[in-house]
Amino acid sequence: DWNSGNVIAEQVARIREQVGSARVISALSGGVDSAVSTALVQQAVGDQLTAVFVDHGLLRQGEREQVQNDYVAATGVRLVTIDAVDTFLDALAGVTDPEEKRKIIGREFIRAFEQAERDLIAEAAADGQPIKFLVQGTLYPDVVESGGGTGTANIKSHHNVGGLPEDLQFELVEPLRTLFKDEVRAIGRELGLPEEIVGRQPFPGPGLGIRIVGEVTRDRLDLLRQADAIAREELTAAGLDQEIWQCPVVLLADVRSVGVQGDGRTYGHPIVLRPVSSEDAMTADWTRLPYDVLARISNRITNEVADVNRVVLDVTSKPPGTIEWE
Ligand code: XMP
């Protein structure tokens, strides 16, 4: 019968056998799968592992600190954080097309990771232990979806910022290959990972970059980060996290409407709330949130976030609407 302690012991033994004394690198995204797979490898080979976390500036409030402080405290992993905010924002300047944004974010992620990798390879060469392995948080459903093939880095690239370069010469370490998401969460909890990471709802790799309809700029990201933090805080306080699959908060950056706030007329942006209920994200329905919770979120966002004077609710199922607006 299934027991997270047994799975951990089994995977740790397997990873040790696979890796030997070589070095391993891992890309942390802030999501559940990369967090748990990295923690397992850390448990198995300790300092032979280096985790790389790319801050692309499209993260939500507190996410970087969560990884840098809480995750590191819980795992003891050796972490390298790449601050690539300026690079990403420069590359995204003037871009409004959603697929173009995704391409740019994916490309810049690979560049940032490759730079970190070159530095680590140089360091590893200096002490004689080459980097041979790359950790991937591949789950059982991903394996089935891609036809069950094993081997070197053939990672589905379209849907994950974790989509890494295909010419990487690393062998993959995939300790979650036989597991489903709820099992991965159970293992993460058993390993003592922070609940904010283990219980996290889905969040797209391109992050807030695809939740600003219009050009992505620093100011707009700051504004959206605040609105998103308020919505998340209120949904959690209302005990609704289990009921909602996820709740994208979207900034309509190129839309303005008239409002009246404080002493006078304003001309600000709308924020869209997109709470959805779903089993697998293939189809979804809009979540009937309690009116009082919606009212609190709306009041707080319009009061606390400068330049936002309207909050609207998306009441579209999927299909026809996708969960994300871009
Ligand atoms: P849609 O918008 O297609 O989203 O209904 C379905 C699920 O996928 C997530 N999503 C993404 N995840 N990179 C990701 O890693 C992406 O580019 C991306 N686009 C959408 C979305 O949050 C939802 O859970």
Could you please describe the fold and organization of this structure?
The chain is an alpha/beta fold and 326 residues long. It folds into 2 domains: 4-198, HUPs (Rossmann fold, 3-Layer(aba) Sandwich); 211-313, GMP Synthetase, Chain A, domain 3. The protein is built from 10 helices and 12 strands. A 5-stranded parallel sheet has the order 3-2-1-4-5, with helices on both faces. Strands 6, 7, 8, 9 and 12 form a 5-stranded mixed sheet that branches. Strand 8 (257-261) and strand 9 (264-273) form a beta hairpin. Helix 1 (4-19) crosses helix 2 (32-45). It starts with a helix and ends in a 13-residue tail after the last strand. It binds xanthosine-5'-monophosphate (XMP). Residues 102, 159-160, 202, 204-206, 246, 281, 318, 322-324 line the site of xanthosine-5'-monophosphate.
Observed structural traits:
326 residues, alpha/beta, Rossmann fold, GMP Synthetase, Chain A, domain 3, five-stranded mixed sheet, 12 strands, globular, binds xanthosine-5'-monophosphate
CATH class of the largest domain: Alpha Beta
Per CATH, the superfamily of the largest domain is HUPs
The general outline is globular
Q: Could you tell me the radius of gyration in angstroms?
A: 21 Å
Q: In DSSP terms, counting alpha (H) and pi (I) runs of 4 or more, how many helices?
A: 10
How big a fraction of the residues is strand?
A: 15-25%
Estimate the mean pLDDT confidence: 92
Largest sheet descriptor: 5 strands, parallel
Number of self-contained structural domains:
2
| Class from helix and strand fractions | alpha/beta
